[in-house]
UniProtKB/TrEMBL annotation:
PROSITE patterns: MOSC. Pfam families: MOSC. Residues 20-170 form the MOSC domain. This is MOSC domain-containing protein. InterPro entries: MoCF_Sase_C, MOSC_domain, Pyrv_Knase-like_insert_dom_sf. SUPFAM superfamilies: PK beta-barrel domain-like (SSF50800). Gene3D superfamilies: PK beta-barrel domain-like. It comes from the Bacteria. The lineage of its organism: Bacteria, Bacillati, Actinomycetota, Actinomycetes, Kitasatosporales.
Length: 182
């Protein structure tokens, strides 16, 4: 295990809206997600996923974004703050997008989430700020889609998470599988 970074902000919202207000702390519930958050549950809660199949397992219980993304989009003229893109946990000092599927992230002294995949950004991002979607979804030199709007996870061990908590990374046994959209 290695210290990967820290939690800078935590956010949650009990109602469907694109952004999530920042909180002093959030409580992660094993197998469910963030206590009181609209996306918490054993089965899918994102409306587009519910419409497809409401019995799908919820692989998107906790959404994490690296704070460095905000600096990146700021250079392109966009102003984005923690919680604005609907994430629950904003981190710094850790390459979330480079983690393999199945990585365990220890958030603070209690909570543990398992990384399930990449967030698949939707058109709502352009409704929030026109043109922002192109900043968080692009293509690499080979033409493959690159998603930068954070990662999704499920709660393996519940606990309280606060700004300033450390993020400790435990990689899964190899071979590692790169993150795919979930």
């Amino acid at each position: 295990m290695s210290i990967g970074g820290r939690v800078t902000t935590v956010s949650s919202n009990g109602e469907y809206s694109f952004t999530k207000p920042n909180r002093e702390s959030i409580t992660l519930l094993t197998g469910l997600g963030v206590e009181g958050d609209v996306h918490a549950g054993v089965t899918v809660k994102h409306r587009s996923r519910v419409a497809q199949d409401p019995t799908q397992p919820n692989l998107r219980q906790v959404h994490l974004i690296h704070e460095e993304l905000f600096d990146e989009v700021r250079t392109a003229g966009f102003e984005v703050h923690p919680g604005d893109l609907g994430e629950n946990v904003t981190t710094s000092g850790i390459d979330l997008l480079g983690l393999p599927t199945g990585t365990l992230l220890h958030l603070g002294s209690e909570a543990v989430v398992e990384v399930t995949g990449l967030r698949n950004p939707c058109l709502q991002i352009d409704l929030f700020q026109d043109g922002l979607l192109k900043q968080v979804v692009g293509r690499d030199d080979e033409g493959a889609i690159v998603r930068k709007a954070g990662i999704m996870s499920v709660v393996r061990t519940g606990g309280v998470v606060r700004p300033g908590d450390t993020v400790t990374v435990k990689l899964p046994d190899g071979p590692h599988r790169p993150l795919e959209r979930v």
